[in-house]
Specification:
With about 280 residues, this protein is an alpha/beta fold. Helices cover about 40% and strands about 20% of the residues.
Length: about 280
């Protein structure tokens, strides 16, 4: 299919999409706003006094919903410039920047009650590649959430069908009291996207799970969390390269050759931000 045909199909889909029309009529910046509305109607994640971080905030639809639903403080972050949203703070930056978690917590006035990510890479049409890319974003967002969430906090991230990877899901079930996958009605039927909803953050469970770990790999998902909250349980990089407990729930993450290791990604906007042309 050539580019012109694809563009025409996208335009026709936009013109015939009731959610696109409703978003324009109600003042939402994207149809994606309805996905968050439907998720929040079901899980009750946003309320008065809630502190929220919106990763990959462009074009601002989810940030708008968070403010409209009464969140106390909302901070949006994106590599791309985003038009201001009344009642929220939006900054340009990279959530993988080591200084970003503390910076955003300072802006919120404390730890976050909800970290949400609707980030998605540009799709290639190759299912396996697209799944790996979006899972890399989801894992990165989860790592970020571990560093900024308050106890009892929640996490939302977009994944593709197939859901969360086994190791990521196991980690989330350790760190949160409830983990579910949902496809909101506003998500197009032909789309393979799902959302993972994790509630009831339990940081002490992560620390307990790290007792058997001699070392967390430099690129393992929870490494920065452990190093900051309990450095005695994460030895320097020159330490032994194995986990002493074969039954440790994080052993796959601590093993240097683990399939869940993620190298520090590049900082291209197309990788980390929702494409602007997608509503």
């Amino acid at each position: 299919m050539d580019a012109t045909t694809a563009q025409q199909r996208w335009l026709n889909r936009q013109l015939n999409d009731p959610y696109v029309a409703a978003a324009r009529k109600q003042g939402w910046r994207s149809r994606a706003a309805f996905k968050l509305i439907e998720i929040d109607d079901r899980f009750k994640l946003i309320g008065e006094g809630t502190r929220i971080i919106d990763l990959g905030a462009a074009p601002g639809g989810w940030t708008q919903v968070a403010v409209k639903r009464g969140a106390k403080h909302v901070v949006g972050l994106d590599l791309l410039p985003v038009d201001p949203v009344a009642g929220a703070e939006i900054i340009e930056g990279d959530f993988t920047d080591p200084e970003m978690p503390d910076r955003l917590k300072d802006m919120l006035g404390g730890p976050a009650d909800l970290v949400m990510s609707d980030m998605a890479p540009n799709t290639t049409g190759h299912a396996a590649t697209d799944h790996m890319r979006i899972m890399g974003l989801a894992e990165g967002a989860l790592d970020f959430a571990f560093q900024v969430l308050a106890e009892g906090g929640s996490f939302i991230a977009k994944v593709f069908q197939g859901g969360s990877e086994k190791d990521m899901l196991a980690l989330m079930k350790t760190a949160f009291s409830s983990v579910k996958h949902v496809k909101p009605p506003a998500s197009r039927k032909e789309s393979s996207e799902l959302y993972v909803i994790a509630t009831g953050f339990r940081p002490e469970r992560l620390l307990e799970s790290s007792k058997g770990c001699l070392r967390a790999a430099d690129t393992a998902i929870p490494h920065r969390f452990f190093r900051k909250n309990n450095p005695s349980r994460c030895l320097p990089a020159c330490s032994l390269f194995f986990c002493i407990s074969a039954f440790c729930p994080l052993s796959r993450l601590c093993w240097p050759g683990s399939l869940t290791r993620i190298s520090r990604p590049g900082r291209s906007a197309s990788r980390w931000s929702r494409p602007k042309h997608r509503p």
